[in-house]
Write a structure and sequence with these properties.
CATH architecture of the largest domain in chain A: 3-Layer(aba) Sandwich
CATH superfamily of the largest domain in chain A: Type I PLP-dependent aspartate aminotransferase-like (Major domain)
Structural class of chain A: alpha/beta
Number of domains of chain A: 2
Number of helices of chain B: 5
Bound molecules: pyridoxal-5'-phosphate
Structural class of chain B: alpha+beta
CATH topology of the largest domain in chain A: Aspartate Aminotransferase, domain 2
CATH class of the largest domain in chain A: Alpha Beta
Mean pLDDT of chain B: 90
Number of domains of chain B: 1
Oligomer: heterotetramer
Chain lengths: ~425, ~130, ~425, ~130
């Protein structure tokens, strides 16, 4: 295996920025190794063409590259048939595709079971179905940030048609037991969707072992280009879904009054696909496979345990962090506050108290402060407002790790936090 | 200290010990402005007599930029007339703070100005609308 | 202005392939100049980050690049407000967005007026609305391949809520009088959508002069990267549409039981956007602006008139081409057959006649034959089956030009066609 | 002439003057296969006696690859038994043609094989299904 230091050397942006950028916003998006950038350049320099319908050689070569990419990514997630992967823009689109498409067969009173730790992308698309009387339920979390399994079981009813759950929370870092949840869903006769946006990039994920019916993930969060993502579905289930977007490529025949559709995956790839994106993501998958997903997971486990150790050592009085402290259930995500800002109940009006309560530092100020020490973290609701509210705060700051991060980055994070704490004291 | 550091110090001073903090009893306009993304909140109560701001207070919760700028803005506009206040723009607020803010923090900085402008506009509707 | 020969020198793929590739499939997708490839590499090397929500500098710089790209593309199409542009994947997605979103306010008996020359992407999304009783009507064409304006006027009724028309047919090359059609639609109280997939890349398009309510186009057909496209809409109309995809970025607030949405354009950009794509498309726009869209149009006009001249000179007995011969109404698209294959009426069974009727060469054989002479054209229904049927053929071959094509390419096309004609005689 | 050129000549010969072109009156299977993308169509009529193909004809419209390969395939399978025919695969057809075809043209080449396999499978259902 390569050393983690060597790995950092593969990332032109990180080399360029040097000490001026400690990039800890990997749950939002990741940097790209030169292998991926090169694959994009190579594509536009040697293979670029529209795919599928062309009879000339260039188009057939492009088609070949496109389908080989599908196959490669299919193998990466343990899918035995590449036709089970449809290319989409990102996780969000994959989940919308499912919600729109499954929506045709969902009726008043049917229930969809989510968890309170879902990303907005796994909430809002389902909310659209509320119009037709479909009900959303949210399984709660325990105090330690793990999923409340008892609540999950209670909310899984005979009316639950679909269970859609994140594999890893982008805020708490909680890794859910996907295989167990899939089994519960299936025993209940429900379809099981896994949001893999934060798991596929960071740990081995095998769709067949987990037995999920559908899996969604984004290329840009796993070293791949922007604008490409994947929807995996067991073939018969995927092919059985009604189409989502209509147009070129997804049809079999079009008449003025009706159309017939192609089989999956084409059925779900309306319009000219992002061939560049597929090829770039395939290059990213090669890069990750070369390191080994077990190694990626170990590295991040090391960083997050080191983080929690540092947290205890520094013991910043107003620092509070969230998420499980059992490393088996914890991804490389560290979400925290320097003093908590609780949400104001707008209806009750504002309480007339002084702003400076216990010298709390707002997450925005934390992020700006860290940025001035060259540490890039995210602050806000992390597209998980229901969870943020559940934690009874208005916002949090979040550091999230990837393969090019090191223990030194964690050291710098805590040194900078100390500095901010002093500034606001 | 650099200019930037001095400006930061001033802002933090306002944040720690905000001016005009509280509510006016006999306010003729009252408005809450809220940024759902970060939870920053500012409530403004204002007393306007003959188109002049005779008193203004705020209460709020949020980051140093949203709260500090509310403190500075309320200082600035006390005694001003409506016409002058309506002319205050984004630029003026950023100059007042003297900090280089990125686009996301600019929203924080402008929260109290937005609230103030809405108060003024509500007041004008009432007085010029004749009710 | 640069010479057209110099322009070709900007395209690494064309330089690489040299005489082995005469690329005449530009209506499907275009090649990329090094300026666009460089912009992509520059982005991933210097600016890559998630946009909008980040408080650190890198993210703010990326956001800045992203929004500047929107502004640049907005200017390019004559839109006075960049908030009128939402980034999507391609034309197909833009039209689906409109169909899904407008669908909420369309009811049984409402009519949508299209033309028989629409691409599948401007047909199938509207067909989905037939489920709720919305009716589609198709304005016919004249013998010369221009739009039958009388038929259009007749089919525009009080029930017509939406008119959606291609600016330029990807098969006939017909350029429709968008301003006139917009006026007719507006006078009738209908919304007017323009499919600009084949016009924005090839001629000056000014949304405000044309007065279209919405415009859709794809980056990859105008030198830009794959996976990026644009939906333009007059601000109030765009902002007034219900959301399409739900998830991150497009929301204002999310609660478990409901959400509120951001304003346009964010409202229509759910999930992590394709920042690379936006920046790449902006670079493509710079490149085109530098040439001048009037020049682009003149160049293609020259190539298509030269093509029709060559057609007359060569006088290949079984060659038949389609589309207007008035150059003012004709884009750089040349669709033809070496003998026509008429569609078989499957219900009546096959007619028992010999295959070789007048030594017709099937479009697939034409494309394969041209490919062996290094000329890349497309053969098939060109995602316009209703039009292909209207022309009473099963398929056609199509050569489509762009800025890097030359008269020599046209010469080669006809020499190769002669050769094929001889081979099959 | 190269091998490729010879193969092309043979294919075009079959295209221009197809073998087994027409319909069998006393066929026990008849089937139309259609590729909507290009309109290529092949109809096969076949007479099977005691699991052996005693006669087979086709009619069709389409490109040289779809029609030429139908002509060659019908030549090839006449007299074969069902078991042998079921073993014919994609590879065999491409070898029979001796041309390097891209994926889109391969569909044309396989049209008649698909039609033939469906005929056989229908026939088996009838005879082994007992109706
Ligand atoms: C007129 C027209 N509309 C729509 C499209 C669809 O474009 P895309 O595949 O980029 O979505 C095309 C291109 O194929 C086209 O030519
Ligand atoms: C758990 C989870 N789901 C979904 C998403 C949405 O991903 P994207 O923005 O790429 O669609 C994210 C990323 O922000 C995420 O962390």
């Amino acid at each position: 295996m390569l050393s983690w230091q060597q790995i950092k050397g593969d990332f032109p942006l990180l080399i360029n920025k040097g000490k001026n950028l400690i990039f800890l916003d990997n749950a939002a998006t990741t940097q790209k190794p030169k292998q991926v950038i090169d694959a994009i350049v190579d594509y536009y320099t040697n293979w670029n063409s529209n795919v599928r319908r062309g009879i000339y050689r260039l188009s057939e070569e492009a088609t070949d590259h496109y389908e080989k990419s599908r196959e490669n990514i299919s193998n990466f997630i343990g899918s035995s048939d590449p036709r089970q992967l449809a290319f989409v823009r990102n996780t969000t689109e994959a989940l919308n595709l499912l919600a729109y498409s499954m929506g045709h067969n969902l009726h008043e009173g049917d229930e969809i079971l989510l968890t309170i730790m879902e990303h907005h992308s796994n909430i809002v698309p389902w909310q659209f179905l509320q119009e037709k009387g479909v009900k959303l339920k949210f399984a709660d979390i325990n105090e330690d940030g793990t999923l409340d399994m008892e609540d999950f079981r209670n909310k899984l009813t005979r009316k639950t048609k679909v269970v859609s759950v994140t594999h890893c929370s982008n805020l708490l870092g909680t890794i859910n037991d996907a295989a167990e949840l899939a089994k519960l869903a299936h025993d209940n006769g429900s379809l099981f969707i896994l949001d893999g946006a934060q798991s596929v990039p960071h740990m081995p994920v095998d769709v067949e072992k987990l037995d999920c019916d559908f899996l969604a993930f984004s290329g840009h969060k796993m070293l791949g280009p922007m604008g490409i993502g994947v929807l995996y579905g067991k073939y018969d289930l995927l092919n059985g879904l009604p189409p989502f977007n209509g147009g070129g490529e997804m049809i079999s025949q079009v008449y003025t009054d009706h159309s017939t559709y192609a089989d999956a995956p084409e059925k779900f790839e309306a319009g000219t696909p992002n061939v560049e994106g597929a090829i770039g993501l395939s290059a990213a998958v090669d890069y990750l496979r070369n390191i080994g997903m077990d190694e990626v997971r170990s590295h991040e486990k090391d960083l997050i345990s080191y983080t929690l150790k540092k947290e205890e050592e520094h013991h910043i009085d107003i620092l509070k962090s969230y998420g499980p402290r059992d490393m088996e259930k914890r991804g490389g995500i560290y979400t925290f506050n320097l003093g908590e800002f609780n949400p104001l109940s707008m209806s009750e009006g504002l309480i007339n108290e002084q702003i400076r309560v216990g010298s709390n530092v707002h997450p925005h100020d934390v992020a700006t402060g860290l940025d001035s020490s060259n540490v890039a973290v995210r602050a806000g609701h992390h597209c998980a407002m229901p969870l943020t509210h559940r934690l009874n705060v208005v916002a949090t700051s979040r550091a999230s790790y990837y393969i090019y991060n090191s223990r030194e980055d964690v050291d710098l994070l805590f040194e900078s936090l100390e500095k901010i704490r002093r500034l606001y004291a | 200290m650099t200019d930037e550091e001095i400006s930061t110090e001033i802002l933090l001073d306002h944040y720690r010990n905000p001016h005009n903090y509280g509510q006016i009893e006999d306010a003729n306009e009252k408005l809450i402005e809220f940024n759902p993304v970060c939870g920053d909140t500012v409530q403004i109560t204002i007393r306007i007599e003959n188109d002049v701001v005779t008193d203004i207070k705020f209460i709020g919760r949020g980051c140093s930029v949203s709260q500090g700028s509310a403190s500075m803005l309320t200082d600035k506009v006390k005694g001003m007339n409506i016409g002058e206040i309506k002319k205050i723009n984004q630029e003026d607020i950023l100059n007042m703070l003297g900090l280089k803010l990125g686009p996301s923090r600019e929203k924080c900085a402008l929260l109290s100005l937005n609230a103030l402008h809405k108060c003024i506009s509500n007041h004008e509707k009432k007085t010029h609308g004749g009710n």
